Amino acid sequence: IDFSLKNKVKDMSLAEWGRKEIKLAEAEMPGLMSLREEFGKDKPLKGARIAGCLHMTIQTAVLIETLIELGAEVKWSSCNIFSTQDQAAAAIAAEGIGVFAWKGQTQEESDWCIEQTLFFGSADRPLNMILDDGGDLTNMVFDKYPELIQHVRGLSEETTTGVHRLYERMEKGTLPIPAININDSVTKSKFDNKYGCKESLVDAIRRATDVMMAGKVAVVGGYGDVGKGSAASLRGAGARVIVTEIDPICALQAAMDGYEVKKMIDAVKEADIIVTASGCRDLIRKEHFLEMKDKAIVCNIGHFDIEIDIAWLNKNYGNTKNTIKPQVDLYTIEGKDIIVLAEGRLVNLGCATGHPSFVMSNSFTNQVLAQLELWLHADKYENKVYVLPKHLDEKVARLHLKKIGVVLEELTPEQSKYLGISKDGPFKPEMYRY
Ligand code: NAI
User: Fold this and answer.
1) Which residues line ligand 1 (CB under 6 A)?
2) What pLDDT is recorded for position 178?
3) pTM for this structure?
4) Residues with catalytic annotation?
5) Which atom of ligand 1 is nearest to the CA of 244?
6) What is the 3-state secondary structure (H, E, C) of 314-373?
7) Is the pLDDT reported for residue 1 higher than 90?
8) Which residues have CB under 8 Å from 309's CB, separation 6+?
C-alpha cells in the first residue's frame, strides 16, 4: 500500500465533464440531497473513515459527496473492472478525494485499487467503516487484513450477492462486525434491481450492438428482482421473452406475467439474446453454447462473471475471439458467431452507465442511513446482518415522491383506528412483500 498516493484515475482532464454530469445527477437524486440538507450542518459522520467499493459512476459520485458533506472522510474503489465512468472518477479525484478506479482494469489492478482504500494517509489511520457492493472489500479486510477488523464499526452491503456472503458468515459465526443489508430494503431491491434493470439492460445491449430488439427472442435466466426488471426491459423493446427458473414460485410468477418458462437448453436454441440474472453460477455452459443460433448475443446482468462459463469459451474457442469494440467480443463456435458482452461481467455497467440516477438515489439514501446508524449506534448491534427498520425504508420512498409529482393520501383518525396504523406509518407489517 502506497500511503503517498492520493488517487489513481484514467484521465484528470475528464474532471470538468464529470462535474457537469454530477450536477445534473444531483437534480435526480432528491433522497441524497435532502440528507445533505438534514444532516449537513451537524456533520454526524465526523471521524468516520469510510472505505467504499462500489461502481465508480456519476451516481456514486453524488453518494460519495453526500458522505463527505455529512462529515466523513472517504476513499473509493470500483467493485467491477468495467464499471467505472472515468469522468466521474476524475471529478471526484479533482476534489482531493482518494479514488482508485478506471474503466478496463485487470483483476490484479482491481485488487490493488481496493487495497489502496484501506488506509487514510498513514498506517495509523485505517478505515473504520465499510461500504461495499458484492463483498470484495469486506472479504479483503476479513480475510487478508484481519488486524484491521478491530477498527471497523460496521459495514453496509449493497447487493444480493454480497448480502448472501454475509449471511453465510453470520450462520458460520464468522461475521466479526455488524452489517446492514441494503439490498433487502424494499426501496432498494424492489426498485434498483427491478426498475433499474428495466431501463439499463436494453440500454446496454443497444449501446453494445445496435441490434433491432423488436421481434427478437430473448431469454432471461432467473426471475428474481433483476430478472423481472430485465424481462420487462426486453419486452418493452418488443422482444419475445422466455424465462428460466429453478424456483416454482418465481417460475409461476413469470408464467402469469405472460412469459414462456423453459429449460435453458431448449430456450437457447431459439434465442437471439440471452441474459443471465440469477446470482448463481454456470447458467450458460458448454452444452448451451453449442446449441446457440448464429449471431446470438450473450450477456450477464448478475453481480459476478460466473453465470456464463466464459472460461470454457476462452479455453476452447479463445483463438476465434474477435473484439468488435471494447466489451463486445465475437467468438466463432463450430461455424456460428456468438457475441459476448462485457466478458460476461454485469452488462449494464460494462456496456452502458448502469442504472439512472433517480433509482440509485433510493439505494444510496439507504446506504447513507445505514452508515449513519452504524457509525453512531454500533453498540446497539450484534455481529449480525440487519435490515434498516421499516420507518426508514418508508422515509427513503417519501423523499422521492415530490420529484415525480406523487401526492399521498393521509389516513383520517377513523381510518387510522380502523387499520390500527399510525398516520405516519409504518404502513405495513414486516412480512408484507410488496
Ligand atoms: P434474486 O435472488 O431476487 O433472484 C435470482 C433468481 O434467480 C431467483 O429467483 C432464483 O430462483 C433464480 N435462479 C438461481 N439459480 C438459477 C438457475 N441456475 N437457473 C435459473 N434461475 C436461477 O436476486 P436478484 O436481486 O434478482 O439479483 C440477481 C443478481 O443480480 C445478483 O448477483 C445481484 O447481486 C445482481 N444485481 C445486479 C444489478 C445490476 O445492476 N446489474 C442490480 C442488483 C442486483
Assistant:
1) 159-161, 189, 192-193, 196-197, 221-227, 244-247, 250, 277-280, 283, 301-303, 346, 348, 355
2) 98
3) 0.97
4) 55, 78, 83, 133, 158, 183, 188, 192-193, 197, 303, 355, 363, 367
5) 20
6) HHHHHHHCEEEECCEEEEEECCEEEEEEHHHCEHHHHCCCCCCHHHHHHHHHHHHHHHHH
7) no
8) 282, 284, 285, 286, 289
